[in-house]
Amino acid sequence: MNTLNSEAFVLFGQHILWSDMVGNLFGLAALALGWRRSIWTWPVQFLAGLILFGAFYGHLTGSAGKQAVVMVVALYGWWQWQRGKEQGGDGHIAVRFATWRERAAMIAAAAVGTVAVALLFKAYPTLSWDPWPDAYIFVGTVVAMYAQARGMVEFWFAWLLVDVVGVPLNFANGYAFSGFVYVIYGALVLWGLRDWWLRSRQAARPTLEGAPA
Cα–Cα distance between 168 and 98 in angstroms, integer? Predict the structure, then answer.
């Protein structure tokens, strides 16, 4: 793991670590696979989390903990998509908008979770150098992945909200490649949001009797 945490190159004065670069490239691939509704998004996300866990462990314990949770949620997502991969009629999971009750539950979980994790980080300062934004990204990532596992279009909105804080936080912590990748995430999220939005509308559109299938 020492080799993975060594410097790969310097870009615009930022020192790029191998683990930071490789882990985030896998994360980028996982997001692209999620856009395509490929079940392989989950093992790739698991691998990205494993690599980034090694990158953060010993330096940003809170971020390392986030990656451990990411790996657990990736296993849940794999299980969910395996169960529902025929729902879309094309061998992939069907996508939909969340109900208002589901949205309220996710917003409440994100708010309560962020406060709880931030207070934990404040109680144990070695877990995070900046408890509130780190907790926000930690919990926001879990909520986004949960929504993705359930095939909810809101998954993309959650990722956009994570990106808003994730980009400056990663640059501030010296993980420049993570910051650059989060910018690319933003573009992929917008494309993925459009695709899932259109698919959810098609799935919700009733089929008229006698119309061609």
Answer: 29
